[in-house]
Structure formats: C-alpha cells, structure tokens
Design a protein that fits this description.
Layout: E1 6-19, E2 27-29, E3 35-42, E4 47-54, E5 57-63, E6 71-72, E7 77-82, E8 87-92, H1 96-122, H2 142-145, H3 165-239, H4 257-359
Antiparallel strand pairs: 1-2, 1-3, 1-8, 3-4, 4-5, 6-7, 7-8
Helix pairs in contact: 3-4
Length: about 350
C-alpha cells in the first residue's frame, strides 16, 4: 500500500461563493478577500479534491468526480455543483486568464478521476495520474517525486511488511495536517501582501494631500505679502498730507514786506478752511480702509497659522504612514522567512516520514 500523502498540484487566488440554500439563486460570499483555492491529489485513495481554507475552517472541500462540470458564467466567474456537499460553489477571479487556467485544470482532474475509476472497475493496477499533471504555484512533494523507476521501494507486502492500521492512520493524519498547514501559511502570506498594498496606496494619497496643502499655503503667503505691501502704501499716503497749491502771484520789485506777510496769512487761512472742509472725510475714509486692510491681514495670518498647523499634522501623518509601511514590509519579510522555514521543516518531515514508513516492519 502506498504511503504517499495528499499533495497540492495546482493553486490560485479567487473570491469564493456558495449558493444560498434557501433561494438556490443568490450567491453568499465566503469572505471579504480572495482566498487560496488548490487542487489536491490523495494517492492513497486515488481521488482529487478542491480545497480552500479560510481562517481555521475549510470553505471548500469538494471531491472531483467524472460527472462534475465546471461552467464559465462570465469572463471572470465560474461555478460547479457538488452533489455530495449538496451545494454549488462559485469562484470570482481577478482576470479571464486565471479563470481559464482553473477550468483547464478542472477538466484535466476530471479526466484523471474518470481514468482512475475505470481502472478501479477493471481491477487493474492503480497508478498515480497526478504525476502527469503540471504543477502551478505549489511545488511537488519530495515524497511523491521519489516515486518513479524505484517506486517498488515504497511498496511492501501488506501481510508481512506493511505497518499496522493504527500506524498508517497516524501517518495519514500527520501528512494531512502538514498539507493544511502549507495552505494556511500561503493564505497568511497573501493577506500580508494585500495589507502592504493598502498601506502603499494610503501613503501615496497622503503624499498627494501634503503637496496640495503646500500649494495652498504658498498661495496664502503670497496673498498676505501683497496685502502687507498695500497697507504700507496706504500708511505712506496717509502720512503725506495733500497741500493744495495756491496760485502764484508775481511780486513786483516794489512790493513791501507787509504785503507779503498779509498774503501769507491769507493763504494760511485758506489752507485751514480747505483742511476743515476736505481733510476730515478723507482721513476717516483712509482710516476705515486701513482698519479693514489690517483686519484682512490678521485674518490671513490666522489662516496661515492654521494651514501651517495642518501641514505639520499632515507631515506627521506622512511620517507615521511611512513608519507603518516599513513595519509592514518587515512583517512581510519575517512572514516570508518563517514560511520558508516552515516549508523546509515540512520537507524534512516528509522525508523523515517516508524513511519511517519504509523502515517500518
């Protein structure tokens, strides 16, 4: 009896749905994010299964039979019915290419399941059709790759050399748990990648918002500078009093000093009269204009202070987003390293179990 474990032969990412058992029309999503959907081959029972793990439970656990049909209902969506599970599964893919690959693999697995059933009915020797299927995204198991020309080394007489039922069940359980563990680690890795992409998008949005705030701040500063210059001009204009120029009268050579003093006094009185008539309203108007301009300058300075405060807040948010992105990158790196370690440990576990099964009496 073969001790080869259940191995993944193809994996992809898709949004998983199940038909509503009440209406048999509406689709119920299995989660908010895309999940890893994999084809598995059980060499012990010579069957194929489609498995998808969401969290700690199996979202899809469908055994492929020759009478199943995978139907493309749109460019990115396909479905198949599982009579054993009494449900209909639907998969939404990111592109038409992914849907085509999954459909082609479904047809290959379905044909392999049909050949396996025919050989089983004919009583012929069962072989492993999974070895002829091309693996995508998930590497083949080292234990299965050992089968081939030396395949007879992994088979022994059930009466004399095969391990007992308890030992076989224990080995099957350990190998099955290792397979599910690989799928869970891969799902966590894709989840971390999605989180990293979201953080990168948030960082780009924060950079664009910061640039927009900087442009607004520069425009407000330019407006404040223009108003300051206007205030300075008005103050200079108010400081210089407009003195009406009187008509120049020619002085004859014989004009006396008394006449000149009388003329000066007359002109002074006219100047005072003009100041009293026109100076008051103009000064009041200029004072009101200066006060209004100063109020505008104060409002702009307050607005500038608020914009500077908002800019500093955005810069702090930007720095925090960058730090969060670096932490996410570090977490993705650590997760990738941990995944490599786990895969290496699982590979060593497979080899050890293979040696244990081979050496078992």
């Amino acid at each position: 009896m073969s001790t080869a474990r259940e191995q993944p032969i193809f994996s992809t990412r898709a949004h998983v749905f199940q038909i509503d058992p009440a209406t048999k029309r509406n689709w119920i999503p299995a989660g908010k994010h895309a999940l890893t959907v994999s084809y598995f081959y059980d060499a012990t029972r010579n069957v194929y299964r489609i498995i998808s793990i969401g969290g700690a439970k199996a979202i899809i656990n469908s055994t492929v039979t020759p009478n199943m049909t995978f139907t493309k209902t749109s460019q990115k969506f396909g479905q198949w019915a599982d009579s054993r599970a009494n449900t209909v599964y639907g998969l939404g893919f990111a592109s038409e290419q992914h849907l085509t690959q999954f459909a082609e693999k479904f047809q290959e697995v379905k044909e392999a399941a049909r050949l396996a059933r025919e050989k089983s009915q004919d009583g012929g020797e069962l072989t492993s059709p999974a070895l002829g299927l091309a693996s995508h995204q998930v590497p083949p198991s080292p234990l299965v790759s050992a089968n081939g020309p030396g395949e007879e080394k992994l088979f022994r007489s059930q009466s004399a050399d095969a391990p007992g039922p308890t030992e076989r069940e224990r080995l099957k359980k350990m190998l099955s748990e290792g397979s599910v563990g690989e799928v869970q680690w891969e799902a966590e890795f894709f989840a971390l990648q999605d989180s990293n992409n979201k953080l990168a998008g948030a960082l780009r949005e924060a950079n664009a918002a910061a640039a927009q705030w900087r442009q607004q701040l520069e425009a407000q500063r330019a407006e404040a500078e223009r108003l300051r210059q206007r205030v300075a001009e008005l103050e200079a204009q108010a400081a210089s009093e407009v003195t009406p120029t009187g008509e120049k009268e020619g002085l004859g050579q014989g004009q006396s000093l008394e006449q000149l003093e009388a003329l000066v006094q007359t002109k002074d009185q006219e100047i005072q009269t003009l100041k009293s008539q026109t100076g008051g309203p103009r000064e009041a108007l200029e004072a009101a204009e200066r006060e209004e301009t100063q109020q505008k300058v104060q409002d702009l300075e307050t607005r500038n202070a608020e914009l500077e405060h908002q800019l500093r807040a955005m810069e702090r948010s930007l720095e925090e987003a960058r730090a969060e992105r670096e932490r996410a990158r570090a977490e993705v790196g650590r997760a990738a390293q941990l995944l490599d370690v786990r895969l290496f440990e699982l590979s060593e576990l497979r080899e050890g179990l293979a040696r244990l099964a081979e050496a078992a009496p």
